[in-house]
Amino acid sequence: MNSFQLLLDGFAGALTPINLMYALIGVTLGTLVGVLPGIGPAMTVALLLPITFTVPPTSAFIMFAGIYYGGMYGGSTTSILLNTPGESSSMITALEGNKMARRGRAAQALATAAIGSFVAGTIATALLVVAAPAVVSFAIAFGPEDYFALAILAFTAVSSVLSRSVVRGLASLGFGLVIGLIGIDQQTGQARLTLGMDQLLDGVDVVVVAVGLFALGEALYVASRLRHSLPEVVPVGRAWMGRTDWRRSWLPWLRGTALGFPFGALPGGGAEIPTFLSYAAEKRLARGVAKEEFGKGAIEGVAGPEAANNASAAGTLVPLLTLGLPTSATAAILLAAFQQYGLQPGPQLFDHNPALVWGMIASLFIGNTMLLVLNLPLAPLWARVLRIPRPYLYAGIVLFAALGVYALNGSVVDLVALFLLGLLGYAMRRFGLPVAPAVIGLILGPMAEIQLRRALAIGAGDVTVLVSSPIAVILLLLALLALLAPLFRKLMERRHVEPVMHTSRED
């Protein structure tokens, strides 16, 4: 059965009334949390994990996909109206978008962001339909050593890209790997790091870890830096664009999509790099009025980066669904959601659960359309959401997280683990350690251990079996490159600065 037929079957499932309702809930929640500073799609999915046990898997992932796309849409509203990016990928939007808003063009900035997100999301999802089966057919040939190398690539790429320093990223990864060791060893049956507590024999629930590190840790960190005064929000009317705005926006939308999707699909690519590249490209290509407006509120500087941001979101789903490789914080939480349902993303997911995978992909088209309808006429409403008192908001998040985790098993141990992990998440943010590598270490660590043992068993203990496959060698080389890339970047920056300093001393 070809991809087009599978996608049609996915639409048949996604267009049922119950799944349409979950899609609407997802995109509405996603937009809401994207608008609110300090709350992102990763945190929202983490908060919802404990209460979706009774929801069918297909419906749950349709909702999660809606939250993911909606969070990308909503982040542009905060950047434009408040000059406060909710996500790092929205920083570039704030550069030109907030200046447009202060010039009285907030409606046009919001409109080009919303329509550009729709265009980029639709094209990128279509590319996902084409790319995913091709990657799956390639991944079917993976052996244990290849999967181990893939896990190493995930560890190094996420640790180096999602952190300000490789050391901090690897330290966060170490926390996750240690937490992943808690419980019974699957091969020897020995208890590990359980501290003699029977409740820990099954390990720490991935949902507890995700909610504790992401939701509770983020809420505590933001609450510790709360300002009690309400933010100054630029007034906005109904989002709309004139003929000139359309003419200046459509090419940046397409160029941003072309940059965003491949970077999102690369391990460690993320959304930050393509948004920066899109902004630089639009600034370089600007002519006439657009060139004069850059730095003062050019619509191209909003259209291109927002398209790149949303296209990268669809690109992130390629390695996640086909290889089980998360390349962003939200993808890491989605991987935790798969594990909650006893599913492992990868080639077997497409074979054993095609209705779930293709229903989720089809829902991206549906959710994208819903988001356009929600964002254009309701922009003034989303602006009012920014006035919610922050103490009420974050106190509610802490209460909701505790209730959700306790509802999982009715266990006080889970609650204690939640608050300990929340404090750990707060400390990690306080000292600049990224949270995503810890979650990825927890999820992929046990898988990497199992594949390593299988590979060594096949090779009769010979370590060279780990580099016996060309695929494994390529993946390990990519992992080494991801680890050394930040070091090379710093050396190049230092080499560039030293001649300048030397020249200034001579002068």
Automatic annotation (TrEMBL):
Alphabetic keyword roster: Membrane, Transmembrane, Transmembrane helix
DUF112 domain mapped to chain residues: 20-440
Name of the protein: Tripartite tricarboxylate transporter permease
Membrane-traversing stretches: 109-132, 138-158, 165-184, 204-223, 355-374, 394-424, 431-448, 468-488
Lineage per the UniProt record: Bacteria, Bacillati, Actinomycetota, Actinomycetes, Streptosporangiales
InterPro entries given in the database record: DUF112_TM
Cross-referenced Pfam families: TctA
